[in-house]
Design brief:
With 157 residues, the protein is of the alpha/beta class. The chain has 3 helices and 7 strands; from the N terminus they run βααββββαββ. It is elongated and about 70 Å long. The model has no long low-confidence stretch (mean pLDDT 91).
Length: 157
């Protein structure tokens, strides 16, 4: 992974909490389980030992990934930011041409949650919204055609 990983304070804390839980809770408990399974004898046919070692490799890989993300991140704090334009961290209320509304929050790749309206700044809609003013409009190509939105309001938490 190269480059800067933009995160909100909330996203940073979530990744940090996951790292701490894996490192201080899950990994030590799993090490104990693997040691107990190894003490039972023949490891080649010991399913608990084999599974434990596999899970340990998965945890170690995730820990390395989290350490890299946390090391290369930049925490973006938009508290008190002028709500006149859309930037990272903004919650944007959109009105869809033809009816309907949508609220999205512009976040980094590690914070995406479409069900919660959290979209990547690098997504087609996220890229279109960046820098646009309140009252502005955007067009996004979708599988169903071009979707047009008007920016109703912009908020920063």
């Amino acid at each position: 992974m190269t480059g800067t990983n933009y995160l909100s304070r909330e996203g940073f804390e979530k990744l940090k909490l996951e790292h701490e839980q894996l490192f201080y809770e899950e990994r030590p408990a799993l090490l104990q389980e693997v040691a107990e399974a190894a003490a039972q004898g023949d490891r080649s046919e010991n399913a608990e030992y084999i599974y434990g070692k596999k899970r340990l490799r998965e945890i170690d890989a995730r820990l390395r990934q989290l350490e890299q993300k946390l090391h290369n991140c930049e925490i973006v704090d938009n508290t008190g930011r002028d709500t006149g334009r859309v930037f990272f961290g903004a919650s944007v209320d959109l009105k869809k041409e033809g009816g309907g509304s949508l609220t999205v929050q512009i976040v980094g790749a590690d914070e995406i949650d479409p069900l919660q309206g959290r979209i990547s700044k690098d997504s087609p809609l996220g890229m279109e919204l960046m820098g646009k003013p309140q009252g502005g409009s955007v067009e996004v190509s979708t599988p169903k055609g071009i979707a047009r939105y008007t920016i109703e309001s912009i908020r920063y938490a």
